[in-house]
Write a structure and sequence with these properties.
single chain; mainly alpha; globular
């Protein structure tokens, strides 16, 4: 294995200017036994966060080299599989879209097209639905954490600011990135654009159990109905979604559902004026609290 190594300035300079030999040499020096061939095998079915997690088990690097495993795994994957986008790379591109969109939403002259097209063309390289896609998405979400709210609201924000065509493209982008939101974001836009009844009907259909959709799609549809203050649809479907999540032992999801319902309980006469319904919400709220604890909702 090469004795060549990366220097302490790698965090400032980035890894793109270092040789593959230097990156691999540094990994081996600090405890990750890997060469280019074995990395290829690892990267066939895994993404950088998983690979770095394995390396961390024997990692001896400290100081500037403590976070090196992830950066190295990401850089090596970009080099060895250049046609496969990594979660970190995709996150960078999405943040660029958000930056341009922010300028546009604040009335500045900004061309969102190049950065949006850049992300759209990467969609074809994402893994298909399944375990690998779930791992990819989880890693992507971890990078987008502080931008999550802005990204989630982007289609609605663009539409409200008078950019409906770009809003539709960002909605399609979200639905293609996060497969559990398929149909949800576009239906929400439709309702917000003036076709409220049609949008609510589509979202209500997505809340109903169906073999073709996940329980998470059902949750996102309920969340969209909440944004639209579609109280009747919420009342008709929220508790059954909670019960289904509880049956699957998905208590954090059930907890999110019942907190959403409880928020409407405080302000909706259709909720408050139905004692049996109030009791049903409260009892489920207490059960969720027992299962997952209070987390500041």
């Amino acid at each position: 294995m090469s004795a060549e190594r990366v220097d302490k300035q790698w965090k400032t300079k980035g890894l793109s200017g270092y040789s593959t030999g230097a990156i691999l040499g540094t990994l081996n020096h600090y405890g990750a036994k890997v060469d280019e061939a074995s990395f290829k095998v690892l990267a066939e079915k895994q993404y950088p966060l998983q690979i770095a997690g394995e390396w961390k088990l024997t990692w001896k690097g400290t100081g500037p080299f403590a976070p090196f495993p992830y950066a190295a795994a990401d850089e090596l994957m970009r080099r060895i599989y250049p046609d496969r986008v990594t979660p970190a790379h995709l996150a960078e591109k999405i943040v660029m879209v958000l930056g341009k969109a922010s300028e546009l939403l604040h009335g500045k002259q900004a061309d969102l097209e190049p950065s949006l097209a850049d992300v759209e063309k990467l969609l074809g390289s994402l893994p298909p639905a399944g375990e690998t896609r779930t791992l990819f998405t989880s890693e992507l979400v971890s990078f987008l954490d502080r931008f999550a709210e802005a990204f989630e609201q982007l289609p609605s924000s663009l539409q409200a600011a008078g950019h409906p065509a770009i809003a539709q493209r960002t909605a399609a982008l979200q639905e293609n990135l996060f497969l559990d939101r398929k149909g949800v974001v576009t239906a929400l836009l439709e309702a917000q654009a003036g076709s409220r009844d049609a949008g609510i009907a589509k979202l209500t259909a997505l809340v109903v159990p169906n073999a073709d959709r996940t329980i998470f799609t059902r949750y996102w549809a309920l969340d969209a109905l909440s944004q639209l203050e579609a109280v009747d649809a919420l009342k008709a479907n929220g508790l059954s979604l909670f019960d289904d999540a509880a049956k699957e032992n998905r208590w954090p999801l059930a907890d999110s559902v019942i907190h959403l319902m409880a928020r409407h309980l405080e302000r909706s006469p259709a909720f408050k004026n139905d004692p049996a319904f109030v009791e049903a919400v409260v009892s489920r709220f207490e059960e969720a609290h027992r299962r997952v604890g209070h987390h500041g909702h």
